[in-house]
TrEMBL record, chain A:
Species assigned in the record: Methylobacterium hispanicum
Phylogenetic placement of the source organism: Bacteria, Pseudomonadati, Pseudomonadota, Alphaproteobacteria, Hyphomicrobiales
GO cellular component: plasma membrane
Family named by the database record: Belongs to the binding-protein-dependent transport system permease family. LivHM subfamily.
Matches recorded under InterPro entries: ABC_transp_permease, BCAA_transport_permease
Location(s), subcellular: Cell membrane
Protein's name in the database: High-affinity branched-chain amino acid transport system permease protein LivH
GO BP term, pick one: amino acid transport
From TrEMBL, chain B:
Lineage: superkingdom: Bacteria
Protein name, entry field: Lipopolysaccharide export system ATP-binding protein LptB
InterPro entries named in the record: AAA+_ATPase (IPR003593), ABC_AA/LPS_Transport (IPR051120), ABC_transporter-like_ATP-bd (IPR003439), ABC_transporter-like_CS (IPR017871), BCA_ABC_TP_C (IPR032823), P-loop_NTPase (IPR027417)
PROSITE patterns: ABC_TRANSPORTER_1, ABC_TRANSPORTER_2
Organism this protein belongs to: Methylobacterium hispanicum
GO cellular component labels: plasma membrane
Annotated family: Belongs to the ABC transporter superfamily.
Stretches assigned to the ABC transporter domain: 5-254
Automatic annotation (TrEMBL), chain C:
Entry keywords, A to Z: Cell membrane, Membrane, Transmembrane, Transmembrane helix
PANTHER family: HIGH-AFFINITY BRANCHED-CHAIN AMINO ACID TRANSPORT SYSTEM PERMEASE, HIGH-AFFINITY BRANCHED-CHAIN AMINO ACID TRANSPORT SYSTEM PERMEASE PROTEIN LIVM
Protein name: High-affinity branched-chain amino acid transport system permease protein LivH
Organism: Methylobacterium hispanicum
Transmembrane region(s): 29-47, 54-75, 90-110, 122-141, 175-193, 214-239, 275-293, 299-318
InterPro entries from the UniProt entry: ABC_transp_permease, LivM-like
Gene it is expressed from: livH_1
Taxonomic lineage of the native organism: Bacteria, Pseudomonadati, Pseudomonadota, Alphaproteobacteria, Hyphomicrobiales
Length: 290, 280, 344
């Protein structure tokens, strides 16, 4: 029982960052119809920016976090403007291949610049964990959860409470109609991609100090983000948030009760199960026939 | 004679929207029947139900006595019910000839038990040659021989329609559904197409078409089925439909374009009698 | 012309080692290139001819490598509940056959599972599958040795009863083996594409509704394509295992799939010669870049090259050159209609 409670606490902490990753990807997928294979690289970029700011520049940890997120935002905007705009109107396969090329180039660039050795980001929190009864949580992880929840809330407010969010939702419904109604779809796409990238970078910047930072860390994170998006339904922000926690739960329980080696396999088994039992339900977009 | 196609109280709902409701009609073998109605009347939906692209929410469609319930489009085609499409009617990147070769997918393979193995071992030569001859013959039959080696997507609209018909005929259907075959065609192309529809019937193929071109419908059909708001409002020979008050009401209610169509339908009567007089 | 070109290329590849002389480094690069090109050929069958991108293609390759290695090495595993499987080593050539079959069976499974959804979902299912398989290879230490790698994999022995046997130990022998298998795979793809089955694939890719309406069974056609494609990738993986004589879970690296994708897209997807041309260029590019660049920097170049090719020659090098030769402007991109989808 104590063990289960510990797993649930871990789930909450991991789930927050997974939700960030998933929301970013599902926004881009849903609004732009782009399968974003740079998402993992942006996660890595966020972690390395955090590392650079804290370890190399000696910036305050809490100041470094917004810097890393802002860096992800700018990176995402640059990718969208330089690489996606020229391919606007092409089919989803072409933009997917472009994103694969960009993702590989980014990941290899990180490897080239920083080398393959994993780096640790020093954290300002006390080493000793917070102990409540049988459950122990490190202060850093608690901060990660709090920050992730705050960012999810911010993303929600942006989508639901601002003019930009309204335009994004309009573009998600139907880009052509939105354009007719005076929405600058080009700018919405840039904003969407930048925002999605910022969320991925935030996830990297938050998990970087918890684990270690290395150039290939984004690969697995990206695949997990895809699992979350499938789980939650295409373009469904709430679904992605919930999906993040479900994946975290599956991983925690899988690692705890099955085998820790297969922790990372859980997401993929979930994808396969979802597609088996609800193949089109998550993708339900009525299309005209004939 | 038992009908070749029976639409048996079929209904389709998209969410709360009723696309067709309780649709009920038969088509007899050898007939040319038109399905008409104002825009949004549910004609294309009805076609999609008959060919398995949509599942009816109620009722069913029977073809040659077999219920089509739960059958996939390709299975329905294999039973002998072929269709054309309103828009995308060709494989645009392939030549006309290759289009028809794709259409002959199911043909000429019966002599072989393992077509895949034959292909790998290069044993399919004889049946391939037979298929090529049939493709050439079909293309000739619809009058596109001169275009056989051109990319189908580059052809004029009317010619693409002919490719679509050749594709459908390649499946050796007993019945052919044509979805707005002459929309966008000029008068002379339409006349050629009407002749083609009659020739298709002479091959022993029953024809059901959805069409907006009223003079054409009046000229070619043995019988007309009229839909409005997803419901059948009239059924009968062209002469009866032309003067049916419910039909006129349905079209007049739809504004000027529909009124013109109705007017054309009226005008067509005069035209028809002139040509009949000429025949006499 | 179109028949002569592949034959000329084959003749050149047969003669190449004679021209190169005894350079084990180049020969090694050619063998690995050849194996990856077989992977690209198999990927092209799905990506190029059916339009379905299998981004987990490396799974079939890796499964082929592991099945072949384990068949020829023998293994002993405890399945729990008192069940033990003890397998004595079999000849490597049998391993090659089993590798092809096992990978094909996995292709069938994935095809059945995911062709109901297609598109982006197919991409993600295939990646997920590859990742699961990699984790199994990494964690089922009793069977695969995990990260410690399977070592001492025997070389392939070819034998004809009454004539004698040859064990392919040298690089030159392996080069010709890879060339032979590659040629066979190319012929299989060529035959398939020219057959009614190939026409069904093309029809589905260009206009699915229309293809269904002429009686083409989408699920069956795509599944068969996936089986054949996976089997070929498995054969390539088997060649890889018996050539390197050692494999570890890194054979499942995502970057290898990306290499194959770049080969296909750059060469020309949906063409017969595209993956071969793309495979030779990108397989041998590391040799050309090695003196000037670190390996990780090379991958930056590949990623950028993929983007540039998509921008400049979206259909790939082979169709692009063919257009140039014919002095004809490139075909305009087909008008995109909203893809009609069957309601299920």
């Amino acid at each position: 029982m104590d063990q289960l409670i510990q797993h649930l606490v871990n789930t909450a902490i991991l789930g927050g960052t997974y939700a960030l990753l998933g929301i970013g990807l599902t926004l881009i997928f849903g609004i732009m119809n782009v399968v974003n294979f740079t998402h993992g690289a942006l996660y890595t970029v966020g972690a390395y920016l955090m590392y650079l700011a804290v370890a190399a520049l000696g910036l305050n940890f809490f100041l470094a976090l917004p810097v890393a997120i802002l860096g992800g935002l700018l990176f995402g905007a640059a990718i969208e403007i330089l690489l996606l705009r020229p391919f606007r109107g092409q089919d989803i396969d072409t933009t997917m291949l472009v994103m694969i090329g960009a993702g590989i180039a980014l990941q290899s660039g990180t490897l080239w610049i920083f080398g393959g050795v994993a780096k640790a980001i020093p954290s300002p929190f006390p080493e000793a964990p917070l102990q409540i009864g049988p459950v122990s949580v490190s202060w850093l992880r608690l901060f990660v959860l709090g920050a992730a929840l705050a960012l999810i809330g911010l993303a929600y407010a942006l989508i639901n409470r601002t003019k930009l969010g309204l335009a994004m939702r309009a573009a998600f419904q139907d880009a052509d109609t939105a354009a007719l109604m005076g929405v600058n779809v080009r700018r919405i796409y840039t904003a969407t991609f930048a925002m999605g990238s910022a969320l991925a970078a935030a996830a990297g910047a938050l998990l970087g100090p918890v684990y270690v930072v290395y150039p290939q860390m984004g690969g697995l994170a990206e695949l997990k983000a895809f699992a979350i998006v499938i789980l939650g339904g295409l373009g469904n922000v709430t679904g992605a948030a919930i999906g993040g926690f479900i994946l975290a739960l599956a991983e925690e329980l899988g690692a705890g009760y099955v085998s820790s080696g297969y922790r990372d396999a859980m997401g993929f088994l979930i994808i396969i199960a979802v597609l088996l039992y609800k193949p089109t339900g998550l993708f339900a977009k009525a299309e005209r026939i004939g | 004679m038992s009908p070749i196609l029976s639409v048996d109280h079929a209904g389709v709902r998209f969410g709360g929207l009723v696309a067709i409701a309780d649709l009920h009609f038969d088509v007899q073998p050898g007939e040319i029947v038109s399905l008409i109605g104002p825009n949004g009347a549910g004609k294309t939906t009805a076609f999609n139900v008959m060919t398995g692209f949509l599942k009816p929410s109620q009722g069913e469609v029977r073809f040659r006595g077999t219920s089509l319930k739960g059958l996939q489009p390709h299975e329905i085609t294999r039973l002998g019910l072929a269709r054309t499409f309103q828009r995308t009617s060709v494989f645009a990147d392939d030549t006309v000839f290759d289009n028809v070769m794709i259409g002959l997918h199911r043909q000429g393979g019966r002599m072989s038990r393992a077509p895949l193995l034959d292909a790998l071992l290069g044993r399919a030569g004889a049946s391939e040659r037979a298929l090529r001859e049939r493709a050439a013959a079909l293309i000739d039959w619809v009058g596109l021989s001169a275009r056989a080696q051109e990319r189908a997507g580059a052809l004029a609209y009317g010619e693409q329609r002919l490719v679509g018909v050749a594709l459908a005929l390649a499946t050796e259907p007993a019945m052919l559904l044509l979805d707005e075959p002459v929309s966008g065609m000029n008068a002379s192309e339409t006349r050629v197409f009407v002749r083609l529809i009659r020739q298709i019937r002479e091959r022993g193929i029953t024809v059901l078409l959805v069409e907006h071109d009223m003079p054409m419908v009046m000229e070619v059909s043995d019988r007309i089925v009229v839909l409005n708001y997803g419901r059948l409002i009239a059924e009968g020979p062209p002469a009866a439909i032309r003067s049916d008050p419910a039909v006129i009401e349905a079209y007049l209610g739809q504004g000027s374009a529909a009124r013109r169509a109705a007017a054309e339908a009226q005008g067509c009567e005069a035209q028809g009698s002139v040509s009949e007089a000429a025949h006499a | 012309m179109s028949r002569l070109l592949p034959l000329a290329l084959l003749a050149a590849l047969v003669a190449l080692p004679l021209a190169l002389g005894p350079s084990p480094y180049l020969l090694n690069a050619l063998i690995v290139t050849g194996i990856l090109t077989i992977g690209a050929l198999s990927l092209n069958l799905l990506l190029g001819f059916t339009g379905q991108l299998s981004l987990g293609h490396i799974a079939f390759f890796g499964i082929g490598a592991y099945v072949s290695a384990l068949t020829s090495l023998g293994f002993e595993v405890d399945l729990g509940f008192g069940y033990r499987i003890v397998h004595e080593p079999w000849p490597a050539a049998v391993g090659f056959g089993l590798a092809t079959l096992a990978a094909g069976a996995c292709g069938w499974l994935i095809g059945r599972l995911s062709f109901r959804v297609r598109g982006a979902y197919f991409v993600i299912v295939t990646i997920s599958f590859a990742e699961v398989v990699r984790l199994v290879a990494l964690n089922w230490v009793e069977l695969t040795q995990g990260p410690l790698a399977l070592t001492g994999i025997p070389a392939i022995t070819l034998g004809l009863p009454g004539i004698g046997t040859w064990t392919l130990r040298t690089k030159l022998q392996n080069y010709y083996l890879v060339l032979a298998v590659g040629t066979l795979c190319w012929l299989v793809v060529a035959r398939l594409v020219g057959s009614r089955f190939g026409r069904a694939m093309r029809g589905l890719k260009e206009n699915e509704s229309l293809a269904l309406s002429v009686g083409i069974n989408a699920t069956r056609t795509l599944t068969v394509a996936a089986v054949i494609s996976a089997a070929m990738a498995g054969a390539a993986g088997s060649l890889y295992a018996h050539y390197l004589r050692i494999i570890d879970p890194d054979v499942f690296a995502f970057t290898t799939t990306v290499s194959m994708v770049i080969m296909v897209v750059a060469g020309g997807k949906g063409t017969l010669m595209g993956p071969v041309v793309g495979g030779l260029i990108f397989g041998l590019l590391p040799v050309a870049l090695r003196p000037v660049m670190a390996p990780e920097a090379q991958w930056i170049v590949y990623g950028l090259v993929l983007i540039v090719i998509l921008f400049v020659m979206p259909r790939g090098i082979v169709p692009g050159l063919a257009d140039l030769v014919r002095r004809r402007p490139a075909r305009p991109a087909p008008v995109l209609e909203p893809s009609p989808v069957v309601q299920r």
